Amino acid sequence: MDTDRLLDEHLQRARRDYADRRPISRAWHERARRVQPGGNTRSVLAFDPFPFRVASAAGRELTDVDGHTFLDLLGNYTAGLLGHSPEPVLTAVRAALDGGFALGAVHENEVRLAELLVERFESIEQIRFTNSGTEANLMALAVATHHTGRRTVIVFENGYHGGVLTFGAGSNPVNVPHDFLILPYNDTDAFDAAIAEHGSSIAAVLVEPMQGSGGCIPGRPEFLAALRSGCDDVGALLVFDEVMTSRFSVGGAQQLGGLRPDLTTLGKYLAGGLTFGAFGGRSEVMAHFDHTTGGALGHAGTFNNNVASMAAGVAALSEMLTPDVLAATHRRGDRLRTGLGDVFSASGAPMCVSGVGSLMNVHGTHGPVSSAADLADADDRLKEAFFFAMLDAGIYLARRGFIALSIEITDEDVDRVLEAAATFDPFAP
């Protein structure tokens, strides 16, 4: 059987059928391209032949301008953990806006939200807000290099810490110019060697406890523990990027793993789906932003404490994201990931799923996947074929195979996804 030819023909049909059913989305895309490079302002949303354009969203569903409705398994790349219309968040935001929304001053809800986050994350003693996880990571590295007086930052292959802190294949000309030392993820020996050689120049180690955009690759416990001990040995700061993984429990992945970073960065869902980021950690490190005690660092941002995000965050954390809710979503994700893996194994398709809890990624390889090297020979066409097959079944995930469940997803929804996946055959003539 010529599987390459069959897969190529399958994809050609899938793209053609997709486009034929979405004339209005196509027209919007052509219109967008005249005023936006690529027809969008968020590169991750682009895919061929063109992305469908959403007209409305509610609960766990999206409806596009051509009238197609989808079960949303993408959850705005983890920011939509609460779904599309969480009433406590909507109520809180409406009330906040009624009180004025461009204050140019401090206000009560930013204190309430800070208190809630410090209470949830044991490693965070003080915290500051930003507008995104990208900004949070930039500020964390700024304070780490200032605190240590060093320049080198260890990061990991396939790591993603925002649009200007991306470490995939090849160099990224958009990256900020820190002195980065890029190591293989989950490779304790490589890290130990780097500490031995460069220890006196290392300011920080920036790591995701599970690489999210890099393919939902979990950090091995012994690897993450080695990062903690290595930083202690040389006086570097360990920075956990929990922009995605903080949803794993009320105290994030660090609570589940029993680790305590020096700094933690947050974002995505913690303001109920509104724009948000935060960085925090040890008081003696965060004190560099305290001018009353001699701190020399400034931290600007017109919308850092915007009233909508602050109110949304207070409502999300105090009324919705309880330990039980997060645990249930985590278990549901484990069931979906395991079920998809079983489906691929039974079908014989060279595919697998990696991840933890409610975050996972489909890959075009048998696996297992524990680092970027394990994806070197993966067939991206298989992920694209799965993406279009799920769209045909009314199920939306990322073109790259990424899935992020919201708390709105039910056990019945998981069953529906597994049933649809069981019919997927990328080599069907």
Give a verbal description of the structure.
By secondary structure, the protein is α/β, with parallel strands linked by helices. It folds into two domains: 3-81 and 324-422, Alpha-Beta Complex (Aspartate Aminotransferase, domain 1); 87-320, Aspartate Aminotransferase, domain 2 (3-Layer(aba) Sandwich), CATH 3.40.640. It contains 13 helices and 18 strands. The strands form five sheets. The chain has a seven-stranded mixed β-sheet, sandwiched between helices. Strands 1-2-3-17 form a four-stranded mixed β-sheet. It has a three-stranded antiparallel β-sheet with strand order 15-16-18. Helix 6 packs parallel to helix 7 (221-234) and helix 11 (323-347) packs parallel to helix 13. The longest helix is centred in the C-terminal third of the chain and has 25 residues, at 323-347.
CATH superfamily of the largest domain: Type I PLP-dependent aspartate aminotransferase-like (Major domain)
The overall strand count is 18
Structural class: alpha/beta
Q: Could you name the ranges where pLDDT drops below 50 across 5 or more consecutive residues?
A: none
| Total helical segments | 13
CATH class of the largest domain: Alpha Beta
Rounded to the nearest angstrom, the radius of gyration is 22 Å
What is the molecular shape?
globular
Mean pLDDT across residues: 97
Instruction: Indicate the CATH architecture of the largest domain.
Output: 3-Layer(aba) Sandwich
